[in-house]
Design brief:
One of its GO terms (biological process) is polysaccharide biosynthetic process. This protein has 17 helices and 14 strands. By secondary structure, the chain is an alpha/beta fold. The chain has two domains: about 200 residues, NAD(P)-binding Rossmann-like Domain (Rossmann fold, 3-Layer(aba) Sandwich); about 240 residues, NAD(P)-binding Rossmann-like Domain (Rossmann fold, 3-Layer(aba) Sandwich). Helix 1 packs across helix 3, helix 9 packs across helix 12 and helix 11 runs antiparallel to helix 12. Bound molecules: nicotinamide-adenine-dinucleotide.
Length: about 450
């Protein structure tokens, strides 16, 4: 099938590439000329495991193209995917300007039936706004071309995006159009060989499903973090508690890791957007407000421990930092807990020596060159002459370090672990002062 994808970010590029990989003829369009030039030269703008080779193969097979030309884009696909950003506005609401801009472009340039598929995460009622924007453009042209607007929220996880797209748990489609349903079934058939993963529903329910999923996941994290904060004050170990509760299949072990808070481009923004959506219908989303509050505070947990250990003034102190990305296997720094940490350390007069396997370029891009930030080539180099090690991301490569080397290299054997990677008893034997989340060192 011929498919156009607007937006070549994490969602758009993965969607376009995976659809091309199974044989669809895909044209990806972006307004960012540099991104498109890079893609046309085989340079992938993001780090996502497995993506680069898939893009290369699909381009070689002639099934994946990139453009900034809106006319070419609208002409190409009967299916027009919208996968552009929906960042938080000032009041926390989802900013729909990019989505509406794409809708207008489609309405302005289409010359035959189109299925407009919205993959961006958008508030309930956005499909109607997209519909209105297209209709307005068509009316201005005195055209009455037929089209359908479908909601098809994306559930991929950064760091495992290709696998998630190729083997989705479910493919949610909101539509009341038989024609659109037929097209979407055909489009996704290659991903349904094992069993039918399609879940059709009405458009509004599909839009809310995405927020409900992210809100649930964010709630799990804030829940366990709240328990961790309690455990700390009560002299309990949250990791033992986690094991104890996870054994109940109604709870499970998944996604209840305590730590220094959730980040990324989705959970913080989507929880805030949901609070805002609720306000719009005179409902107070108390639980979501608490989830957000707990998370904001949790992002400062490591800073609290650091002040507890070193005092308020951190002038002259240097901190080794392992992990910058908001989670492993991505270079995404949006709302990353490491940013809250670094900014607090700088404000208190400290320097940071950081290492991340893939997010250092992005960090440099965000913070530029500054005296109080040194990005190091290895995780060991980050330790040199540092007064303590801080861990913000649970990269696999950080899980079993050489503790003797760590002790020798740091000025003092102190670790602040925002991801609970190590066994406190073992670290005590090694002679470390070890601060982890919810494991006994009460603030
Ligand atoms: P992103 O910021 O990585 O990419 C968005 C891209 O859209 C950018 O390259 C931008 O230049 C482009 N763009 C903006 N306006 C455009 C236009 N008029 N025409 C063509 N391109 C345009 O965003 P993302 O992380 O891929 O997220 C996209 C949407 O998907 C968001 O709504 C997000 O909430 C949702 N989502 C994201 C993830 C994720 O893990 N990142 C997962 C599921 C859903």
């Amino acid at each position: 099938m011929k498919v156009t994808v607007f937006g070549t970010g994490y969602v758009g590029l993965v969607t376009g590439t995976c659809l091309a990989d199974v044989g669809h003829d895909v044209l990806c369009v972006d307004i960012d000329q540099k991104k498109v030039d890079n893609l046309n030269n085989g340079i992938i703008p993001i780090y996502e495991p497995g993506l680069e080779s898939l893009v290369r193969d699909a381009v070689q097979n002639g099934l994946l193209h990139f453009t900034t030309d809106p006319k070419r884009a609208v002409d190409h696909g009967e299916l027009q995917f919208i996968a552009v950003g929906t960042p938080s506005g000032e009041d926390g609401s989802a900013d729909l300007q990019y989505v509406v801009a794409v809708a207008k472009t489609i309405g302005e340039l289409m010359d035959g039936y189109k299925v407009v598929v919205n993959k961006s995460t958008v508030p309930v009622g956005t499909a109607e706004k997209v519909q209105a924007a297209i209709t307005e453009q068509l009316s201005a042209r005195k055209s009455s071309l037929a089209f359908d607007v479908v909601s098809n929220p994306e559930f991929l996880k950064e760091g495992a995006a290709v696998n998630d797209f190729m083997k989705p748990d479910r493919i949610v489609v909101g539509t009341d159009s038989e024609q659109a349903e037929k097209r979407l079934r055909e489009l996704y058939a290659p991903f349904n060989r094992n069993h039918d993963r399609m879940v059709f529903m009405d458009v509004r329910s599909a839009e809310l499903t995405k927020y409900a999923a992210n809100a649930m996941l964010a709630t799990k994290i804030s829940f366990i973090n709240e328990m961790a904060n309690l455990a700390e004050r009560l002299g309990a170990d949250i990791e033992q508690v986690r094991n104890g509760i996870g054994a109940d299949p109604r709870i499970g072990y998944h996604f209840i890791y305590p730590g220094c808070g959730y980040g990324g481009s989705c959970f913080p923004k989507d929880v805030k957007a949901l609070i805002n959506i609720a306000k719009g219908v005179d409902y107070s989303a108390n639980l979501m407000e608490a989830v957000d509050r707990v998370n904001q505070a949790q992002k400062s947990r490591l800073v609290d421990y650091i002040h507890q250990h070193f005092g308020k003034d951190l002038n002259g102190k240097t901190f080794a930092l392992w992990g910058l990305a908001f989670k492993p296997n991505t270079d995404d720094m949006r709302e990353a807990p490491s940013r809250v940490l670094m900014e607090a350390l700088w404000a208190a007069g400290a320097k940071v020596q950081a290492f991340d396997p893939v997010a250092m370029e992005e960090t440099q891009h965000i913070y530029g060159l500054r005296d109080d930030l040194k990005l190091t080539g290895t995780k060991e180099a980050a330790l040199e002459k540092a007064d303590a090690l801080v861990i913000c991301t649970e990269w696999k490569n950080f899980r079993a370090p050489d503790f003797e080397l760590l002790k020798r290299t740091l000025n003092a054997p102190v670790i602040f672990d925002g991801r609970n990677l190590y066994d406190p008893a073992r670290l005590e034997e090694y002679g470390f002062e070890y601060y982890a989340v919810g494991r006994g060192k009460s603030v």
